[in-house]
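re: ur question from earlier - yeah i can do the single chain one, its not a big deal. heres the input i used so u can compare w yours
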Amino acid sequence: MTEAQPVAVAVSTVIFGLREADGEPALHLPLVRRVREPHLGRWALPGGPLAPEESLREAARRNLAATTGLDPRHLEQLYTFGAVDRGGAERLVSIVYWALVRTDEADRTLDDVNVAWFPVEALPPLAFDHDEVVGWAVKRLKAKLEYTRISHALLPEEFTLAQLREVHEAILGRRLDPANFRRRVEATGTVTRTGGLQSGVRHRPPALYRSTARQELLT
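and the output i got, formated as tokens:
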């Protein structure tokens, strides 16, 4: 009879935010450099162990605060990863969440040399199977973009339709026709005009909008 392999349970999170890359908004995520084995020195998704007395969501938020300083308003469960050999000598089962943060929220990331934001399209080699995990999260985000208002969670309270289009372009990785996008968004009733105009622009200031589903995104 073989000895049972020890099993550890962890909670990790893929956090998406928009940051500048080559002068344009691009989808980024924060990574944490590992300071212990296994995978010492490699970048990994923020996460940590599940405490006996806490829920999975509580563990996700606690680990995010400890490793990145972030407290995302939109947080939902993605998948459970538990391949036998993913954790090395100790079997590691990870319950993974994914989250969205606005730019002002992303700016609150801990000032730490072991925490950094990277473009999703240019990630460094990741520890464990975290490249696969990120792939799953990107697919989920793209899928939900088609039938939910998930993109609004990456924007401030008030935004222009051009800014909303830039979010969709960053997630999809392709350009969208501005006129067609405007017609489609306005027809859905998912945004409403605030009556204000964007300030600080040289040309004619565009109208500002507000999401009609902001509360739905606070999950």
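The chain has five helices and nine strands. not sure if urs matches, ping me
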